[in-house]
Amino acid sequence: MRASLIQIAVDEGESVESRRRRVAALVREQAGADLVVLPELWTTGAFAFEEFGSEAEPLEGPTYEAMAKAASDAGVWLHAGSIPERDPDGPLYNTSLVFSPSGDLAAAYRKIHRFGFDKGEAVLMSAGEDLVTVRLPDTTLGLATCYDLRFPELFRSLVDAGAETLVVPAGWPERRRAHWTLLAQARAIENQTFVLACGTAGTHARVPQAGHSIVVDPWGEVLAEAGADQEVLTVDFDPGRVATTREQFPALKDRVLGITTPHRR
């Protein structure tokens, strides 16, 4: 299976519409890949909080339309990263879109863990509530976004739901790049899955981005890693290695569930 992670550089002087056209062209160039992955909130920049409201769009808005056509033109499964989605009832969500090679929407995932503590995304956007997996011909994707990477419970739940390849679009800051790499490897090792983590390059609202998109195998080995600038990271991997790894080292079978706090005497 061939995956291409497009590590987009967000230029603050570029309009959102111009960026959509540029990214759609990049997706079309990946014809021949099985899966293409884009980063988190690439239309606005993940730290451009003041633009979330003004640039928010309905689920089936202009980014949806542009990415659906790009997926169809390239004949690829496309994880189109995430957009600031405005629900018809008013709330904003950080929502990922996945399209089939025919351009149909296969799944939408609203980010569960919002970053910012008492500011930024954490107060501007509502939290999603649903686990989302997507069945591809050769593997089942489990969807997560950026800050979700710090919460192992989410990923274990995705594995319980059948996920074999975890896809994580992000707008991860450079100052915490070491965490990005370490956490991607940890999620792969503990769940015995592939991890495809696609970040952004450039600077978002004066926050330098980490770049370094990464593909990790079920043993935690890094199959490919991007640099700091805009780049298309393409890697071939065998989804069958998930089952093989779990057979060779069946750690998931030794999970102990329902652990409770002992009574103190």
Note down, in words, how this protein is organized.
Pfam families: CN_hydrolase. One of its GO terms (molecular function) is hydrolase activity. Keywords: Hydrolase. Residues 1-239 form the CN hydrolase domain. 26% of the residues lie in helices and 27% in strands. The strands form three sheets. It has a six-stranded mixed sheet with strand order 6-5-4-3-1-15. Strands 7-8-9-10-13-14 form a six-stranded mixed sheet, with helices on one face. Strands 2-11-12 form a three-stranded mixed sheet, with no helix packed on it. Strand 7 and strand 8 (140-143) form a beta hairpin. The longest helix has 15 residues, at 177-191. The protein has helices at residues 16-28, 49-55, 62-74, 121-124, 152-160, 177-191, 241-248, and strands at 2-7, 9-10, 35-37, 77-86, 92-99, 105-110, 133-135, 140-143, 165-169, 194-198, 201-204, 207-208, 214-216, 222-225, 231-236. The protein is α/β, with parallel strands linked by helices and 265 residues long.
What's the mean pLDDT score? 96
* SS-derived structural category: alpha/beta
Q: What would you report as the Rg, rounded to the nearest angstrom?
A: 18 Å
Low-confidence stretches: none
CATH architecture heading: 4-Layer Sandwich
Topology:
Elements: E1 2-7, E2 9-10, H1 16-28, E3 35-37, H2 49-55, H3 62-74, E4 77-86, E5 92-99, E6 105-110, H4 121-124, E7 133-135, E8 140-143, H5 152-160, E9 165-169, H6 177-191, E10 194-198, E11 201-204, E12 207-208, E13 214-216, E14 222-225, E15 231-236, H7 241-248
Helix pairs in contact: 1-3
GO molecular function, one term: hydrolase activity
Organism: Streptomyces cellulosae
Protein name: Carbon-nitrogen family hydrolase
